[in-house]
Design brief:
Length: about 260
């Protein structure tokens, strides 16, 4: 309400965090005191606790909802491996906790903002694109043999196959290659071919932005698939691809905000 005495704290968000799917708020408030004391007021204690909870919603909403759901797990981000948008390992456990919280708090909406580690993800994408070049050679070979085409990322190159596909991929590269004394491309050891190919793979901002977006989309798709309404989930375009630095938290991550 409009009033000089009205709190500036996010009351609506706090209520959404506290109210369960039945529309009820349950608080365990231990109270001690004497009813004979004229200064004793149960209502005053309840107001104080509610005020503290609303303040907590303003400063640490994920800590509040984590404590409510049990375990106190910090849910304000989800980390990824470099270059990857897959949710695995500890990320799966965190997503499950977030799912439980969102299902039990239907009045809460979630903003999802993807980020990248500008160095580690860049190097990771180089390796990914390099592997795709080799797998593309294997796919060509399989299609020639009459096998159905599949996404290259689903293919696996076994160690004995690696040198052959590396040589084929290197041969197709358009960058200038070392030549022998008669002007023909030299045969190079595997490490040198790898180094030259990786050196000429350029990862630009668009590639990094795509990875950040893929991480956000993957999180949203996972939540929707598990029963969270899509209209409660909002993908936010990051102001900066690199996130705010956090102690012991990877830059390769998605940040969450509750609304």
């Amino acid at each position: 309400m409009e009033s000089p005495q009205a709190t500036k704290l996010p009351v609506r968000l706090a209520i959404s965090l506290l109210k369960d799917r039945k529309g009820e708020i349950h608080l365990d408030i231990p109270v001690t005191g004497s009813l004979d004391d004229p200064k004793f007021s149960v209502f005053g204690i309840i107001l104080q606790v509610l005020g503290n909870l609303i303040a907590k919603a303003a400063t640490s909403p994920f800590a509040l909802i984590g404590a409510i759901m049990g375990g106190g797990q910090q849910l304000d981000n989800l980390e990824f491996e470099s270059w990857s948008a897959a949710i695995a390992g500890a990320g799966e456990a965190k997503i499950n906790t977030l799912l439980k919280a969102l299902k039990d708090r239907p009045g809460v909406n979630l903003e999802i903002e993807g980020h990248v580690d500008m160095e580690k993800d860049r190097e990771g994408l180089k390796q990914l694109f390099f592997q795709r070049k080799l797998k593309a050679q294997k796919l060509k070979e399989l299609v020639k043999k009459g096998q159905p085409s599949v996404p290259v990322d689903e293919l696996k190159i076994e160690p004995p196959e690696y040198p052959g596909y590396l040589k084929l991929a290197y041969k197709e590269e358009k960058f200038p290659k070392p030549k022998n004394f008669i002007g023909m491309a030299k045969d190079l050891p595997n490490p040198e071919m790898e180094k030259l190919m990786l050196t000429h793979i350029a990862i630009n901002e668009s590639d990094l932005r795509t990875l950040a977006s893929q991480r956000s989309v993957r999180v949203r798709e996972t939540l929707v698939k598990n029963g969270i309404e899509g209209e409660r989930l909002f993908i936010i375009e990051p102001k900066s691809l690199a996130p705010e630095k956090k102690d012991k938290v990877k830059d390769s991550r998605v940040d969450f905000r509750l609304k």
